[in-house]
Amino acid sequence: MLGFLRRNYEAWYPTETPKQSDPIRIGLLGTSKIAPVAVILAAKTHPEVFVAAVAGRDVKRTAAYAKKYRIPIVHKDYQALLDDPAIDAIYNPLPNGLHFEWTIKALQAGKHVLLEKPSVSNSMEARKLFNSPWVSGPDKPVLLEALHYAFHPAWQKFLTLIDRENIAEAHASMIIPKGIVPLYDFRCKFDLAGGCLMDVGPYPLSCIRMVFGTEPEECVEANHRKLPPGLDQKIDQAFSGKWRFPNGGIGTINADMIADGGYFTSMLDGFPTVACPKVEVKHREVVVESDLPSDQEHVVQQTVVMWHFTLPFVWHRIDIQDNHAVRGKTDGKIVKDWVETSFVKEYRGKVGTDAWTTYRHQLEVFVNKIRKRPVGAWIDGSDSIKQMEMIDGAYEKAGLAVRPSITGV
User: Could you give the residue numbers annotated as active site?
Assistant: First the structure.
């Protein structure tokens, strides 16, 4: 418990690190709620990153935001930020529908871009963005989709425990309790490329893609729950889907950005539902060598579960369960069975401390890429394109419209 408290205190209230003489100067597009955690907090312990500027649509609101987070420069609009020659990189957490336009403009201005998930509104935009001449070539700006959990050592450890060719089923789930996302929020607006699969969905979707290490062959099933009557009926507030992968395994997801319902009893219907984000991988049964009679065999089926994969720095646990059985080869009769369980945690990576957040690990990789240093985990443009193709395919399978492009692609 003391380790948990100490780690989380250091994560949320880190000691600031002195900056080097030539830090990467980051500008924020908009006065978002995520930037303080995703960039501002993470930058405090990075000697090569300085949050130098912010731009917003409302000058007074932007000035108040800058004062609160000690950001020295306030720009009157987004374009003014991109035109600032002192800014090296841009963080783009704008509503999804604005990602493509302002990321392209930032790249054209020669700025590196840390781009919030989902990268864009649809796969057409993704192909145009990540295949654009502005990111092609060794001396072009760095562009990274910010799936922050993928850079934490706990997630990387989890992937090493998976036998991809032997996966039978993989399921990932994440929900946001009712009341956190307002029903009139931009995430609930179709014209701004909103929806559960666009907001919460990228996490479980990317999970099963990384677990299988390849792309699905087919979206087998997709279901959704719409917003309440009177609100935008083109928006999904919850989404579930099933995909078949090349090894024959099945990947499923469950996502909900306004989760409610009876958790223990129907008397709680309508109240917020809370559940820990998790990903569970069931492997196929395998025969292991054992000193047994010739008419018997020893089989093992392994399941690996990661709890709290989205914010593992707060807390996480990886469960490894091996289900053993000795059975007859011909009749399948169980002679003996038993279960072996072990637990793994991985808070500290090759760099940093155990209090580094997922966002801090992400920022480390982003900076290393800009500085042309080696990086470990990375999400390249082809990954982001395939992620959006999977999202578009799921919407089509569910009978919903693919999210539109504001600027026209």
Answer: 117
